[in-house]
Write a structure and sequence with these properties.
Elements (H helix, E strand, L loop, with lengths): L15 E7 L7 E6 L3 E5 L6 H18 L4 H4 L12 E3 L4 E4 L12 H4 L2 H12 L1 E3 L6 E2 L4 H12 L5 E8 L6 H10 L4 E4 L2 E4 L14 E9 L4 H14 L3 E5 L6 E5 L36 E5 L1 H4 L21 H14 L12 H9 L5 H7 L4 H10 L5 H8 L2 E5 L15 E2 L5 H6 L2 H10 L7 H19 L16 H15 L5 E5 L7 H16 L3 E5 L3 H6 L2 E6 L8 E7 L4 H10 L4 H7 L15 E8 L7 E7 L2 E6 L5 H16 L14 E3 L4 E7 L12 H4 L2 H10 L2 H5 L24 E4 L7 E4 L10 H4 L8 H5 L3 H9 L4 H15 L16 H15 L10 E7 L7 H16 L3 E5 L3 H6 L2 E6 L8 E6 L1 H5 L5 H12 L3 H9 L8 H4 L34 E7 L7 E6 L3 E6 L5 H18 L4 H4 L10 E5 L4 E4 L12 H4 L2 H12 L1 E2 L13 H15 L3 E11 L4 H9 ...
Parallel strand pairs: 3-18, 3-19, 5-17, 17-18, 23-29, 23-30, 25-28, 28-29, 34-49, 34-50, 36-48, 48-49, 54-62, 54-63, 56-61, 61-62
Antiparallel strand pairs: 1-2, 1-4, 6-7, 6-16, 8-11, 8-12, 9-10, 9-11, 12-13, 14-15, 19-20, 21-22, 21-24, 26-27, 30-31, 32-33, 32-35, 37-46, 38-41, 38-42, 39-40, 39-41, 42-43, 44-45, 46-47, 50-51, 52-53, 52-55, 57-58, 59-60, 63-64
Amino acid sequence: MANKRTRKSTPPSDPVIEVRGARQNNLKGIDLDLPVGKLVVVTGPSGSGKSSLAFQTLYAEGQRRYVETFSPYTRQFFDRMDKPQVDAIRGIPPAIAIEQQNAVKSTRSTVGTITEINDYLKLLFPRLCKGYDPVTGAEIAPDSPESILRKTVERFGTGRPLLVLFAIDAPAGAKPADFFAFLQQQGYLRVWLYGKPYRVDDPDSYDRKALPARVEIIQDRIDPSRRTRFLEAVERALDLGKGVVSVVEPESGQRLAFSRDWSSPETGTVLKPPTPGLFSFNHPLGACPACRGFGRVIGIDLDKAIPDKSLSIAEGLVRAFQGDSYRECEEDLERCARARGLSLVTPFDELPPEDRQWIVEGEGGDPDEAWRQGIWYGVRGFFDWLESRAYRMHVRVFLSRYRSYTLCRACGGTRLKPEALHFKIAEKTLPELWQLSIDDLAAFFGTLDTAGSDKTTTMLHREIASRLGYLKEVGLGYLNLDRPTRTLSGGETERVNLTTCLGASLTSTLFVLDEPTVGLHPRDVGRLVGVMQRLRDLGNTLVVVEHEEAVIRAADHLVDIGPGRGEGGGELVYAGPGAADGEAAAKSLTKHPRSLTLQYLAGSKAIPVPASRRKPQRWLTVKRAAQHNLKKIDVDFPLGVLCCVTGVSGSGKSTLVHSVLHGNLLKDLGLATGETEIGQCKELRGTGHIREAVMVDQSPLSRTPRSTPVVYTGLFETIRKLYAESPDGKARALTPGYFSFNSGAGRCGRCMGNGFEKVEMQFLSDLYVTCPECEGKRYTPEALEIELEGKNLHQLLELTVSEAIPWFSTMPGKPAATVVAGLQLLAEVGLGYLRLGQPLNTLSGGESQRLKLVGHLLAAPARKRQDGKTALLIFDEPTTGLHFDDTAMLLRVFDRLVEAGDSVLVIEHNLDVIQSADYVIDLGPEAGVGGGEVVVCGTPEEVAACPQSHTGRYLRKCREYGTDSRRQIRENFSPTHDGRPLSEKFSRISLPEKPLKVAEAPTSYAPSLVTRDPNRIANAISLHGARENNLKNLDLEIPREQFVVLTGLSGSGKSTLAFDILFAEGQRRFLDSMSTYARQFVEQMERPDIDLVSGLPPTVAIEQRISRGGGKSTVATVTEVWHFLRLLFAKLGRQYSPDTGNAVEKQTPSAIVTRLRAEAAKGKRTVLVMAPLVRARKGYHTEVAEWAGKQGFDTLLVDGRLVPVEGFQRLERFKEHSIDVIVGEVAAKTPAPEVLALVETALRHGKRTLRFFDAANRIQVMNTEMVDPETGRSFEDLDPRLFSYNSPHGWCPVCRGYGSVEKGADTLDERDAESVLDAELREELRRSRAEEGETEPCPACESTRLNEVARHVRIGDLAITDLARLSVAAAREIVDGFRFEGRDALIARDILPEIVQRLRFMEEVGLGYLQLDRSATTLSGGESQRIRLAAQLGSNLRGVLYVLDEPTIGLHPRDNAKLLDTLVGLREKGNSLVVVEHDEDTIRRADHLIDLGPGAGQHGGEIVWQGDPKDLFNPPIKPTKRASKSTHDPCPVTHDSPTREAFSHPLVHPLRGSRRKLPAKKAVGEWLVVKGARANNLKNLEVRLPIGRLTVITGISGSGKSSFLRGVLKPAVAAALAEGKGKGGRKRKPAPSQPWTSLEGADRIEAVYEVDQSPIGKTSRSTPATYVKVFDEIRALFAQLPEARARGYTASRFSFNLEGGRCETCKGNGSIKLEMNFLPTTYVVCEECGGRRYAASTLEVEYNGKSIGDVMDLSIEEAAEFFAGVPKIARTLDLMRDTGLGYLRLGQPSPSLSGGEAQRIKLVAELTRGIGRAANARLRQNRQPKSTLYLIEEPSIGLHLADVKRLLDVMHRLVDEGHTVVVIEHSLEIMAEADFILDIGPEAGEAGGEIVAAGTPEEVVKVKQSRTAPFLAERLGA
């Protein structure tokens, strides 16, 4: 063929991510190469720039590029990170950040859901579970005839006859004789009643007067040994008995009952069939309706009623009973307890469970009745009684004290419907499994036997076990699957997400992790490293910000940022191989001596262990702590020393310190609040020794930039006093408050002291630009004139702490000394690099914690008091984010605190801190239920001596290695030099004897991964058990980083595999890493029906099934160029006045005052003055009302309505709103000073803009920045909506953004519309149907679509409408030449590249000729396809899977080559491509081919060939061999490949041996002649088309083919037919606006039909059978059946759209829509009709053994055979089969059809109409029918070569019958079969629109100017 296959070039052996010139924050132009596919650790001192490199540069860029593949609408909801300050980043994969933040708020998210284990459990449960009768507890299982036979033989044996019975309902009041006669008519002879058989032909033998409600019919009397007959009898009885059958031994009456469903024949209990949805609380089928799947509801919390379970009844156990109001209930409890023999003095938690239950629940029943009988009604009964009296205010107040989220009583907190609890695996329900700890659950699945199960069950079991193993390995074995995600700590969240990513098997992804070891005990660090290495081994790149030495030594590549902190850092001090041991570190240190990290790793620096331990003098004692997993422990906390609480992760440390100790301390000190969690304990002793308890955690200090380190520490107050007392300050009588940038008079009025302004960038990240007034200095020029020692306040705030200390040290006086002392504290805790004015919202958690510590030190400088009390300072993992050197500094601060008299308590795992502590409390010994005990307490030496302590084990190693302990112990745990993972090298080491090494998994558990076949593809996407749609349980491996083509017959399953599985899963997995808020705006596809997908990269889909847009869509809008142009002009354009052409200027507030007073005088009414606050923004906006109330305003203007501030109701969240605040009123006599004050207030709140109602009650705008100096007209600030065709703010008011107006329609028709939006949609629909000539260019905007204000905004001399009129190439050249300076350059920095990149890529794919404002509806198919490709591929990603849907559609063979080059270029960048395609050139260019088949629909869904495409074109091999053994294809071929067959036996043209002879060129009536064709780019053409022939119109994409067919030929013929033009080819007078001059030959045309690819229906009620009208004939056939006629059924009875015959439960849809307001809408099969759409009575009517429901479920191919004897039906079905649609079902919903399928169905419908019209002409009009003109655009879309041949047969059949077929095509097979070819070109756009060649294919190939000729010649072999 024309394109020779290009093999993939060999990629570089060591691909890298290239970072050049990274300048983010303090980074100093770093150049860095990071190896791809490695574990990279980024470390360095705190504040050195690690996060700036890892997160704000690498992650930000990797995520940004992938997110840009989504729509602008979607992108605005993602967390938009700023574009990093970097020169270039090349080769970066899509990035996922795994951080310590836990943003999940909903309890619907659990550990099970985010790890996807719940998803696998819900799939596994239906496969393994057993059902149990809730009444009897007996097992329930569905039976088949085979199982019934087996069980019958087991019970009764063989050799004697048994009765097979089924039961039917007896009509009420029916006489036995009458009923017996009825049964006899039905062919039944005997019944079984009351244990005896009766003959129905002898009713007198029945000796009772009445019949039972159900009568059992004897189907057969048969010996089970007669197998076949017994099975037939059982099967028939099951059908007639509605799934229930009984087998009775007639002599004894013993019986066995069986059910085909999940029902119990004995009790009648029916279980809902176990489906995955039933076991999901996120699915309407499974979620408990009472709590909606949350498991909790707002109700009475009995834990609040009984808060202290260590109390006895006598001690006041029930808090609610204490006090006078309900003292009687306390007495009732005591009286009833004595009667029961219950001890009143035994603590509640020591009572037996049944007694505790009795106290809570009582005797049961109604509480009122129990009280009257004198029995105990229970604590719950007491509250139930109160609830009935909640109409009283005091009762409601009382109940509110005890309300909170409690377990749902309906489901018991299980979250699921009761029906789900009837199923168990190994005696456990699914909620019981959720409640098990990860450790116990892993053990459960380790013992669960799935041997003998199918492959899918085994796979699911293995996946669950594997994911549980990952959770254990990262130290989370103590969690359970039901633990809400929102309750996880940051470290737990990060590690859960890490295992989720590992379980998801994403590949080619950049994972950026933020200190994943936070919260991990040293025992678990090695396991964590192993998990990260496993994620790396899947083909991912990991960049880990970390200080933990074991992780640093495990790195493949180490990056050290430093050498110092803040401004002293930001340099690359080391980048190279990881320092696995001290020797390697020492060697690297000699070359990189500035690396602080290498100094510690090499041992040249170390944190010393104290020579002696301080002795505690006093103690805090906790007695019987029992919160969470704490097991009633007693703990002594020493005071006056450094005490460390440690233990394995999950052992109970935080519970003990935070809840029990700190919570009870606050309670005893009277400082507890409603938010304080007070942990359960018997008592807390020693609180009298505590002066204050301070929790120094890592929560953010501020969410705004206003607070800074000196403000937080209180030092800024002293600094402001120094400035006020300076000579200049005193001279001006300034106070310290003047210098506050939060409220002082000296702050900048424009930015309000922020120093910057926020520029909203829509779908780009918002920009914060320097305030133009103060230039970022926060203060007014007058305030900055005040200097202290030569520095003003701005210069001072720019100093770092370290720089400020010597500067203040030179000043005399106590205030300066105070500042110096505070700054020195900051330096001592390692924060010397912070700037004094640095916003606190930029600090990390560790920095915030240390700043809090300094704030506490400065707030209470005098530590030792005469009262002898101490302050208890509690730190939770203070070494988080700290380098070794920072940890050393922190320990020195702790020592200082203790020496000053404070007590320091730290929760910590860091061995350096533990070794430096005076006292250690070790909890454990394990996590979760295995923890909660005190393992050992004492000095570090005493802990090290404890053999049961995991901490002690590590401390012992430290002691054994002496002073160089850290280096040597870490060396012992570091990875080995031989490259083997330590999990392999040390697999025989026993855990109790030695600690686990880095990356070693515990020997007791080795997660079971999918077994890898050595013959399978190594770098591949693996799919197992794919059953989506028609796929037949496929197992498949698709090679990554290759160009893979999926081909096969139409309907064989290609798109299902590519889009419903690969794309859906790849995108979903990546999106799961993003916020839940953002994900709800992305159209996520449902999870496919597949067992497992692994090795899947993030995916991007480029489909053909995308709308071209409405009448307002243009080339610029669909490519997103317009979005960025709007943003550019809104931010950088200058407004000019439409009235005068003058540039707008500033005006003073005084001028506005004059205008307002004049307006008030003119209208003789008060003028409302408003400040705009919100303009067209979505949200509730309640915060706006709150702000207005605080400012003293009382009225808002909301969406044009005045609304009071008080009682403001939140607005619709997802609707745009505009809000103004009413600042005041101006009357004619209002004094000017008052008006000026009002104006200044409005301008301040409205950001230099105010609005007012004029005399005509219209809103006018006044702006200090934008006013026409000549007319005084003001303009609003520019906004992107001003340039939008779809917004009233921007569109032309005459044409409303269409650029054209309808003749005779001047206004928006709102008469019948429900809203303005409805009217706009109606107008859109009406315009889409408008014919040529019904519209004309808009005279107001001259077709520019925008209003006059938008048209007068310019950049330089260009308006946005000027750019829109340019071609892509010309616009790119102009925009590329834009240059801006200063603030404007910063704003343009991110916008211009987006515009230029999109325009340049459009040029590269050959679309440079398109005009930006060209309507999208006029684009050809090829142009639309390439525009979509250009829009999606500009992200320049690597490691992505691109899934494309027939990208060659609409492309000329010449353009195919360009497109394929582009796709190959994508592959060369390291991406994977999966392309659904039939094109031969594409298949030849592929690296790997997968052929699906062997047929379509139910006959497809199998892999029939797989391998290198070059093998496909070799001679065919026997189908019994493996098709691609050389490529390790796991799928044996069972059928030969249709693709191989098609290419092995190419079509020989012409198929019929010769072409039809063309008529003579001058033959009258034999040609359709169009003259003066000039639509779009057509250049006044004269086109001649032969009548009664097959004509193909071809040419370069965009040359004008569609313009001629749809814009000229169709309307010309249609107009001629409509007007009844004269005979004999007489010329028709042209209309003035029509795009043709004349038409000849239309008198030979009967009708014209256009067959396009628009959908045939939008609901499931439309089907192929209904569209082609064959369903009408089928219904008529059923209505003529004898049974239907006997019942009086007409054809309408068999319609699923009409009442009577349809199933009323589902209204004939076959499915029911389930909606719950928190879950996605779900459609489930209707249980009433089983998805068959019809009522049971309708389905009883059968034709040849099939009901109407059965017929609708037939494929077209099956239906054609079924109705072969009914010509009316068979003819249409045969046509559908002949056009390649035989695989579709008659009742298949129309929305599920592709564009190509819809087109072929339309073709059949038109053919049927044409046949009917011809028959009518012959039979009724007695004349020879004329030729019907069929216009078909690219019918080969979606067709396999084998289907193309069938399509050609259909078109030839049409022509043979005298019809004229005109086809637009690029398929060479169809071109080569044409009778006549019209080649339009020679190029596209303005370079096209001419006839290049016209004639037979043989004549066309001789035309040298034709771009088609070379390709066609090759196909014809010419």
